[in-house]
UniProtKB/TrEMBL annotation:
Protein name in the entry: Tetratricopeptide repeat protein
PANTHER family attached to this UniProt entry: LIPOPOLYSACCHARIDE ASSEMBLY PROTEIN B, TPR REPEAT-CONTAINING PROTEIN PA4667
Span list, region Disordered: 32-58
Keywords carried by this UniProt record: Repeat, TPR repeat
Record bears the keyword Transmembrane: no
Species of the source: Algoriphagus lacus
């Protein structure tokens, strides 16, 4: 499981509260009505955030990062520059500083903008940063960055539904959230078992308070993808919020059998104690 997915699970109740940091989008299959709040908060520039994150690195990693930045800035060999940028991105990604990681993937793309693998990695890195951003203006900026890179890949390979789902989710946080929901539905029409599509539609239903609909999405998700621990967890939460106490208890117990992670188990137990 990806580190980012695990983080969303282990924070338990806070994860569900965090969903409400997104714009309030109503996912109505028939009417397709939506509403969205306007962003007002200020944002930091990528350079400023990266400088701030430098101070959060250990002295050893900061020294390594400084040496790599010197190569990136001064080396005349593009291969060396790209390698330095990728290694810098890896340092920040490992530390959970996703916006800084994306910033250095972007630096790699600037060296060779024709390399679609670099473009894709930059887009995915910005999406990961977008997924954890709370500041509304920052969310908007990271979403735009994600689209600018991933759409380049999709233009050459429109069958990449994994990337299309990411682009769709960035629109959900925009001034036109229905565009993202429409894209997600198109993905599920093309691939009804699409893991990301089913999961994201479930999350969007939760975010809009449609927990019964969310449960349906997550039930479908785990039918095709039973190892999706995040989906299993959110199915239990959806049952809990729908007042389906017996189903919620059984589902939380099922989640407990899927992992030994103490943080996840603690989060599950928090819900079980309320049942």
């Amino acid at each position: 499981m990806k580190k980012s997915q695990l983080i969303l699970i282990v924070i338990g109740i806070s994860a569900i509260v965090g969903l409400y940091a997104l714009p309030k989008v109503v996912v109505d299959n028939e009417a397709g009505t939506t509403s969205v709040e306007d962003p007002n908060a200020p944002e930091n520039t990528p350079e400023g955030v990266t400088e701030m994150h430098e101070n959060e690195l250990s002295s050893e990693k900061r020294s390594l990062a400084d040496a790599l930045k010197l190569k990136l800035d001064q080396d005349s060999d593009n291969t060396v520059k790209i390698s330095a940028a990728k290694e810098l991105a890896g340092i920040y990604q490992t530390e959970g500083m996703f916006d800084s990681a994306a910033f250095y993937w972007e630096k790699a793309v600037e060296v060779n903008p024709q390399d679609m693998q670099l473009v894709e990695e930059a887009g995915k890195a910005y999406y990961e940063a977008f997924s954890f951003a709370l500041d509304k203006n920052k969310v908007e900026d990271l979403a735009e960055k994600t689209r600018s890179y991933l759409n380049q890949v999709l233009e050459k390979n429109p069958s990449r539904l994994d990337l299309k789902t990411k682009v769709a989710m960035t629109y959900v946080s925009s001034a036109n959230p229905m565009q993202g929901i429409t894209m997600m539905r198109e993905i599920l029409e093309e691939d009804p078992q699409n893991e990301d599509g089913l999961f994201n539609m479930g999350v969007l239903s939760m975010q809009s308070g449609q927990y019964e609909r969310a449960a349906e999405r997550f039930e479908e998700l785990i039918k095709y993808h039973p190892d999706n621990l995040q989906g299993q967890f959110y199915l239990a939460v959806s049952y809990f919020e729908s007042n389906e106490k017996n189903k919620a208890k059984a589902q939380f117990e099922a989640v407990k059998k899927m992992t030994q992670d103490p943080m996840i188990l603690e989060s599950v137990q928090t819900y079980l104690d309320k049942l």
